[in-house]
Structures are given as C-alpha cells and as structure tokens.
Design goal:
The chain is an all-alpha fold. It contains four helices and no strands.
Amino acid sequence: MAEAQPELLAHHCTEAGLIEQAVGYWHKAGQSAVQRSAHVEAISHLTQGLELLRTLIETLECVQQEVDMLIALGVSLLATKVKQL
C-alpha cells in the first residue's frame, strides 16, 4: 500500500495527526507522481507535505527533507511552466 498509494496513507496520517509519518508519505507520493510525469499531482502532494513539515520542530532531518521536497517541487513547477509556453 505504501508503494502503490502513498497519497492515501498520507491523507490518513494527516487526518490522524501523525504529522511526521504524513510528511514522509506526501513526499513519497510527490516523488512517485514526478516519476510518472504527473506534475500537477506532484505539486499538490509536495505542497501538502511542505505545509505539514513546517509545523514540526526544525531539526537537521526536517531541513534536509524540506530541501529534498523543494527540489522535487521545483522540477514539477518547471515542467508545468514549460508545457504552458
């Protein structure tokens, strides 16, 4: 389930208040969407994960995860902008 539909687990973890787990699943869902070139979906998943991540105490691990998510988000944002040109 975590591999096939991480966005579903992300949603459930978010609703349950399991923020750290939810962030990880949103990240995984975003990466999966990027790999499928589903960039609009990736933007949504990664944005949700970043919003939740920013509610956690800032640790080195959180900062690294934020950087990773922002890079993936940038890829999808660029891809959607290029398609519009």
